[in-house]
# Entry
Amino acid sequence: MMKLLILGCHSATPRENKHTTSQLLDINGSMFLIDCGEGTQMQLRKSKVKFSQIKNIFISHLHGDHFYGLIGLISTFRLLGRESPLNVYGPKGIKEIITLQLKFSKSWTNYPLNFHELSSTQSECIFEEDGIKVETIPLDHRIYTNGFLFTSESEKRKINTAVTDKYNLSPFHFSQLQKGMSINLEDGSIIKNKFLTLLPDPPLKYAYCSDTLYHEPLIEKIRKVDFLYHESTFLEIHSELALKTKHSTALQAAKIAKKANVKKLMLGHFSNRYSDKQVFIDEAKIEFNNVILAEDLKTFMI
Amino acid sequence: MMKLLILGCHSATPRENKHTTSQLLDINGSMFLIDCGEGTQMQLRKSKVKFSQIKNIFISHLHGDHFYGLIGLISTFRLLGRESPLNVYGPKGIKEIITLQLKFSKSWTNYPLNFHELSSTQSECIFEEDGIKVETIPLDHRIYTNGFLFTSESEKRKINTAVTDKYNLSPFHFSQLQKGMSINLEDGSIIKNKFLTLLPDPPLKYAYCSDTLYHEPLIEKIRKVDFLYHESTFLEIHSELALKTKHSTALQAAKIAKKANVKKLMLGHFSNRYSDKQVFIDEAKIEFNNVILAEDLKTFMI
# Structure
């Protein structure tokens, strides 16, 4: 199960009801925070998220609208009495920025704060635990930037109901079957797992790509993902500005989605110059039909 | 004229409708920002403040709830195309923190950003312009902290209406009189300024004291000010916690106000543990009667 909560999906500067980038990805109950613009902790409170559930934070790049809220969140964890470790994955420099501020405020965290600094321009696997894997997606922006590919391998075998319906099985039996175990019936007979189950679901994949210029090399990395978030700061009428600032247009995001043959595309990182967001959908649909808009404080099933 | 807009008056961590410390002081149209907790730029937008009007920012100390919003505001000024200089007054270290973040984001400001770093433990005058003076008020907190005393000298002489009512004077005449000039009447006669005016109003004084332990040495500096903001993070029931964290209680703030013989006291920097703020007033009134509560997004005339 993957559930994506958009905490902020606007670019540049935060405004009332227009928060800068942050997302909370829930994979089978494990919470991954992706980027952390100013005010993210307030958005988390509004969403009634339990702060202690966040164990891993991924920062794409060191532009303010993607990480100025990180130091505040780290400080708040301390004030809330956090004891469990926090892992921060982000570009080289992030450790220096955070620790400098902790130094001057004499507010060292009383929980382990582990930095995993990134500097490779090649995709690398940076997290692997409980069937969940996170790999970087190198992007092309004004400064060193990574997107992130989240993969969740399903470990549970699927129940073959066409067969199990013939038996009178208990919930305990079903739980055993999902784990790959064979079961003992009351009459003493044993039925092997393979006769009652099917292979687990294919892995679920979520790709987060922000911020980036139209960048075809990333296509290979995100091919056929279930859900792609791709920035679309601009519309085509501002394509020159997109090029200059190394951002994408809605049409370009859709081209990437189409070429990578993804199942669904979400657009976000909108410039504040556009009041009507429907135009982003209209423009993207020229290339790719299954497209939706990110929206602050809204949750999406992947 | 002094007008104080409270942008945030809560301590520790920002929550919805409970913003951390920031205030905007308007002295005859000049805007002074005092402290800048996370999300201050969003509070400024809600208050419809014109960002370009802010030319001077005063940071009391380097705890997050007083300055984590500064880097975001500085970045937003750049994105808004600011050209006029910005002056930041704050503890030694503030320049390193801000410039490190600008370095990693490759986002140097295209307006002059001047840091005035403070390290003296004695009161000093750090700003003087157009009859407005700002002096530091050394406080006693866990890290190096200053309050700020704002003094506005009125340069305009007061019209002595008991006398001017005898003449048929124009608005232009009144303007000349306020500037200290003598006036020419239509019949050719001259009336000297001193016969028509009184001395200017005494200077207006606003003292900002946050964060601090109960600290009697500051009394001399704030004697008889028109308006004192003094932190009261806690109530007396938590006086041990106040001592341990080097904060004040409402009663202690009132004692300072009484001993300094100030005209009015405002309490703020409330801990999130108290839902009913009226108790702060009740406790303070034991020592000092003219006391009010700070409130986010509310404006007060000084």
User: Anything to note?
Assistant: Chain B has a mean pLDDT of 96. Residues 158-198 of chain B form one domain. Chain B has eleven helices and 18 strands.
